[in-house]
Design a protein that fits this description.
This protein is about 35% helix and about 20% strand. The protein is an alpha/beta fold. The strands form two sheets. Strands 1, 2, 3, 4, 5, 15, 16, 17 and 18 form a nine-stranded mixed beta sheet that branches. Strand 2 and strand 3 form a beta hairpin. About 0% of the residues have low confidence.
């Protein structure tokens, strides 16, 4: 068999359960995220090889078996015993925005709560003002800088939420920019409509009318292919359970997959609502009840945890990853929550380190959470997130020999090579082409 690219002598984390990616096997017949303690099964292949043809994985197995199979390649790469994984997936970001909010640091250090900063016109509303004033070109250029950082850090697919327009014109502008970004650089961009991210000042007197305005956008956004998912910030002082149910039910009826910013600061019941509605994911979950977390797990709703946000905000509690994994048997994913205020970082590798040190997740669970499970959280689990025959060839070669080193040695970029759809797009940690 002749292939385009053959990576030999890698320590493969296929992310296929029980090594299902070995010996040329295709991925499982009914792919699903890894749940509970199964998140520790990373499909390890010693001295492995991966063959790529026409942008997809054509063969997976041990390096000596590649010789016996007669695999020849146009390009061969010797991983030299280094770790090879699927490309990372960041399933929760606010990629498209303008401006920055470093001036809020002093308020945060003084102990001013985030909701109080929001009431003073900061937080989301500050970014809304900057984003409304920005052109599509300005938004595009700022996002391209972030996407390059993400790619060089191993991220090959990213979710991008709107939510900094809070009116029809700018919400659509953000979504158009996100769609255009997918054609301008290698990282795959999955769009989410988050129109109800906050109540704008002009709608304070009638937030239900504002919510109706956002709901009116659902059909044209879906028809024009500007977003696959819809999301809402269900939180005290923002949108109630009743308002969130109303919006998300309308989104489901319009054809969207639904997500929810749930129980970040107050235990409103967002996790329970996510389970009730069959949401693809519920995100944040710092204040979620264990009843709600269990209901999510039973409903198959992925818990997307954002430890960078809780750490950066100085939260006294963090999402209960250990309960989700050990007791509820949930599927857990990790994301940066990249945004200009509460978590201004594009580094998913930093989040991985925080997941170990703050959430007490194991290296294997963390790797599952940023590959296989994150892929399912953005509706791509059948195509990306693991190394198996037929899947898209999104791969990372790391300057590390095992997953533990990635989270143990933090604060540096461990990426050597990134492959996206079969093409090498990062070498020596730098974007090429």
């Amino acid at each position: 068999m002749h292939v385009d690219l053959l990576i030999r002598h890698g320590q493969l984390a296929t992310m296929e359960p029980s090594g299902g990616g070995e010996a040329g096997a295709a991925s499982e017949a009914t792919p699903a995220p890894s749940r509970g303690r199964a998140m520790r099964d990373i499909g390890w292949v010693e001295d492995g090889a991966v063959a790529v043809k026409d942008g997809r994985i054509a063969w997976v197995g041990q390096s000596d078996a590649a010789n016996r199979e007669g695999i020849e390649a146009s390009v061969e790469m010797d991983a030299g015993g280094r770790l090879v994984t699927p490309g990372l997936v960041d399933p929760h970001t606010h990629l498209v925005h303008a401006g920055s909010r470093e001036y809020e640091l002093a308020l945060k250090l003084a102990g001013v709560p985030y909701l109080e900063i929001l009431r003073r016109g900061g937080g989301i509303l500050s970014t809304v003002k900057a984003t409304r004033a920005a052109s599509e070109e300005a938004l595009t250029q700022q996002a391209l800088v972030s996407l390059r950082r993400m790619l060089e850090g191993g991220v090959t697919t990213v979710e991008a939420k709107s939510g900094y327009g809070l009116n029809a014109e700018v919400e659509l502008r953000q979504l158009r920019v996100a769609k255009a970004l997918a054609e301008l650089q290698p990282v795959e961009v999955v769009s989410t409509f988050l129109g109800p991210h906050a109540v704008p000042p002009e709608a304070k007197a009638d937030p239900d009318a504002f919510l109706s305005e956002m709901m009116a956008l659902l059909h044209p956004i879906h028809t024009d292919g500007l977003a696959e998912f819809a999301d809402i910030f269900c939180e005290d002082g923002v949108f109630s359970i009743e308002q969130s149910r109303r919006f998300l039910m309308a989104a489901k009826q319009a054809g969207f997959g639904v997500k929810i910013h749930a129980d970040e600061m107050e235990p409103l019941g967002g996790a329970e609502l996510a389970a009730e509605l069959g949401a693809v994911s519920a995100d944040h979950l710092l204040a979620a009840s264990r009843t709600g977390l269990q209901a999510m797990a039973e409903a198959g709703c992925i818990a997307v945890l954002l430890p960078g946000t809780s750490w950066n905000l100085g939260a006294k509690t963090h999402a209960d990853a250990r309960y989700l994994i050990d007791e509820a048997g949930a599927a857990v994913a990790l994301a940066t929550d990249y945004n200009p205020g509460s978590c201004p970082t594009e580094s998913l590798q930093l989040i991985m380190a925080l997941a170990a040190n703050v959430l007490r997740m194991t290296p294997e669970e963390i790797l599952t959470a940023v590959t296989r499970n994150a892929a399912f959280a953005v509706g791509r689990g059948e195509r990306i997130g693991s190394i198996a025959v037929g899947k898209q060839a999104d791969l990372c070669v790391w300057n590390a020999r095992n997953p533990a080193y990635l989270v143990y040695h933090f604060g540096v970029n461990h990426v050597d090579t990134v492959v996206k759809r079969g093409t090498v797009v990062v070498q020596d940690g730098r974007r090429v082409g």
